[in-house]
Amino acid sequence: MPRLTVIIASTRPGRIGGRVADWFTGIARDHSGFDVSVADLAEINLPFLDEPHHPSEGRYLHEHTRRWSATIAEADAFVFVMPEYNFGFSAPLKNAIDYLYHEWQYKPVAFVSYGMTSAGLRAVQMIKQVVTTLKMMPVTEAVSIPLRQAVDADGQLQPTAGMHSTAVAMLDELQRLTAAFATVRVPA
């Protein structure tokens, strides 16, 4: 079964990213198209890029980089659960991406975004430029969560039926692309 890694991109204290990821990973596990794991950038706590060699060389000096490399290398596909901050994606997500190079290549990526005004759409559009440079394939289908409508007064996520059906459609497409990209990926 292909391995899907859900990456929680926010490290902000009090974030809703964990709750969004919990909701989404439940749907992903029920989908049964993937073996699902979660990588929480707040727990992984990568320092600002501190490797002296270019990531394309794969010469990692630090144990945190080797662990991160192994996490990404063993995945066949990704879902970024990502906030929008000031019309862009989070710095911890960009940092986590920049640590590696070959580990990301020829793998599809989908997006569960959230934000106040645009539900994270601007951040997703911006990060597509980054992931395509790494030869990743963004999935067109995406879940975009408008926090003003989807979070109650207690800060709890209130998913809608539309969010659920969109997540399933996104997973279906991610599964198709994962199978296709497995045929072109160079074994590690």
Q: What key phrases describe this protein's structure?
A:
188 residues; alpha/beta; Rossmann fold; six-stranded parallel sheet; 6 strands; 41% helix
Give the termini separation.
18 Å
The first-level CATH class name: Alpha Beta
What CATH calls the topology is: Rossmann fold
How would a textbook summarize the main sheet? 6 strands, parallel
Give the radius of gyration: 16 Å
Estimate the mean pLDDT confidence. Answer: 95
CATH architecture: 3-Layer(aba) Sandwich
Number of strands: 6
Q: Proportion of β residues?
A: 15-25%
Q: What ranges have pLDDT less than 50 throughout 5 or more consecutive residues?
A: none
The topology string of helices and strands comes to EHEHHEHEHEEHH
- The CATH superfamily is known as Flavodoxin domain
Shape: globular
| Helix percent band | 40-55%
The tally of domains stands at: 1
Q: What is the count of helical runs?
A: 7
Structural class: alpha/beta
Summarize the structure in words.
With 188 residues, the chain is of the alpha/beta class. The chain has a single domain, classed as 3-Layer(aba) Sandwich (Rossmann fold). The chain contains seven helices and six strands, in the order E-H-E-H-H-E-H-E-H-E-E-H-H. Strands 1, 2, 3, 4, 5 and 6 form a six-stranded parallel beta sheet that branches. The longest helix is centred in the C-terminal third of the chain and has 22 residues, at 161-182.
